[in-house]
Design a protein that fits this description.
Length: 298
């Protein structure tokens, strides 16, 4: 009976975890108070990060001029769903796969930044994201707003291809919780900012360069959780999760904060998740430097 109860709890926990994997605020160190992450997110240089809503889901976005925001392309793909069976540790469970994928109607999109709510006028997904040969490799979208936003300093775009090993801060909205307790991760609609390091460049190439920056979530004492780069976590180490998609990755260069990445999501290994929680998981960010010319053309 005890074995059966334990197995049932495992299945329930796994299902609750899977329910959040379709979103991409931050998963934080279990040994650091959450209020430190919340205070970091309130710094003025991150006022440009807001929420975006599509009618069926949502995510985060970054103001880059008073009338344009950047976000992740995958946020704007609507779909029907199809039930599939997934096996985890020999146990069967039901998941839902997207079906009949289509681009969101722009009339359903609006953004919210520092209490200012405005509707979208035009949505432009990077063409390579939907191209059959490069599908998903350029996860970036530009949204023109119906009216300008006031008294918010837009993000400065990075144009240099020197992001590797940069100390960075990611900012977004959505689910959050301690990394060692996936069962406590839940949507609290909090703006959370966390630190990390760009450990690797990866993904399909665009204009000869890898499109993605990767970071992992290092444990404060368990080096075996390290997947890339140094195993020493930052003081406010974090990894993105539900609601962060489209949020911003920033670095301070020459005393100026600049936007270097747009959150594309996290790569969650279920087996690792059941053992060490979110420690050892990785996140990926689309490199802004590769798309500044495309952004300016729009």
């Amino acid at each position: 009976m005890k074995t059966e109860i334990k197995q049932n709890r495992t299945i329930i926990l796994t299902l609750s975890i899977l329910s959040f994997l379709t979103y991409f605020s931050g998963i934080i160190r279990h040994d650091i108070p959450e209020n430190k992450y919340l205070r970091l997110a309130k710094q003025k240089q991150f006022d440009c990060v807001g929420e975006i809503f599509t009618g069926t889901s949502g995510g985060s976005c970054i103001l880059i001029t008073d009338k344009f925001v950047l976000s992740a392309a995958h946020i704007f793909l609507d779909s029907d769903t199809k039930a599939d069976t997934l096996k985890v540790d020999g146990k069967s469970m039901i998941t839902f796969s997207p079906l009949n994928i289509r681009v969101t109607d722009v009339s359903k999109i609006y953004i919210l930044i520092k209490g200012q709510k405005v509707k979208a006028k035009k949505l432009t997904l990077h063409p390579a994201y939907l191209d059959s040969l490069t599908k998903g490799s350029c996860d970036i979208a530009l949204i023109e707003l119906e009216q300008p936003l006031k008294n918010i300093l837009p993000a400065k775009l990075n144009t240099a291809f020197d992001e590797l090993n940069s100390n960075v801060v990611g900012v977004g909205y959505g689910v959050s919780g301690p990394a060692d307790r996936p069962d406590l991760v839940a949507p609290h609609n909090k703006k959370i900012a966390g630190e990390n390091v760009v450990d690797s460049l990866s993904g399909a190439k665009y204009s000869g360069f890898e499109t993605l920056m990767l970071c992992d979530l290092d444990h404060p004492s368990k080096q075996e959780c390290n997947k890339m780069g140094s195993s020493q976590p930052k003081p406010l180490e974090y990894v993105c999760s539900g609601g962060d998609s489209g949020g911003g990755l920033f670095r301070q260069k020459n005393n100026t904060w600049e936007l270097i990445g747009v959150c594309s999501g996290s790569n969650v290994d279920i087996t690792i998740l059941m053992k060490t929680g979110y420690y050892g998981q990785t996140m990926r960010w689309t490199r802004v430097s590769l798309f500044t010319e495309w952004i300016n053309q729009q």
